[in-house]
Design brief:
Layout: H1 3-13, H2 20-28, E1 34-38, H3 44-51, E2 55-60, H4 63-72, E3 78-82, E4 95-101, H5 109-122, E5 123-134, H6 151-157, E6 162-174, E7 180-191
Length: about 190
């Protein structure tokens, strides 16, 4: 995505609702403690988690996202870190919750696999991973610097972890910046 498109995306998403899985986690009180938001964008999810008792580390490598996340999360227990999610060191068994919503698709497949392995190691026992990746039928599947998954392939890669929720969505609709395409997303929540 070009720098101008990222600015449009950050602007369009800064007032969105938090990811539904996170709202459910907070309502049910399933986990608490330290959360990691990988690819935090405008900081909406990090803010929501911090407002509901989590200490949050929010990571992004886009300057616009970092600026917006710092603004949105000001005064909350959120550490906003400017870093590439591929090389961000996730300490073993540190986080009770890790979120990577619409971040992994913007990495090449091998990079996404590396980040997923780091996420597996970084979760505490019974910790939760909330994710959204793109499926192979997605309208952007011609883009070489992105990653796309089959549902079975993703399940197999995350073997050894418990899928609490998992579903695949296919729908032609506009995205955050108004571009309409076929969205093929694989979303869910996994427990270590």
């Amino acid at each position: 995505m070009s720098e101008n498109n990222w600015k449009k995306f950050i602007e369009a998403t800064k007032s969105r609702q938090p990811v539904g899985f996170l709202i459910d986690i907070v309502k049910k009180g399933e986990v608490s403690g330290l959360a990691l938001d990988l690819g935090c964008g405008a900081g909406v999810d990090a803010k929501y988690l911090a407002e509901n008792g989590f200490k949050v580390v929010a990571v992004d490598n886009n300057a616009e996202a970092i600026s917006q996340a710092k603004q949105v999360c000001a005064g909350l227990d959120v550490e906003v870190v400017a870093a590439d999610v591929i090389n961000f060191e996730i300490e073993p068994e540190k986080y009770s919750l890790i979120v990577s919503w619409n971040t992994l698709p913007f990495l090449k497949k091998e990079e996404a696999k590396k980040v997923l392995e780091n996420i597996k190691r970084g979760l505490k026992k019974d910790g939760l991973f909330v994710f959204c990746v793109l499926g192979k039928k997605d309208g952007w599947n011609y883009k070489k610097k992105m990653s796309f998954w089959d549902l079975d392939e993703f399940e197999k890669f995350m073997e050894g972890m418990e899928f609490v929720e998992l579903y695949e969505k296919r729908k032609q609709e506009p995205g955050a910046t108004g571009e309409s395409k076929l969205w093929n997303s694989i979303r869910g929540m996994i427990r270590k």
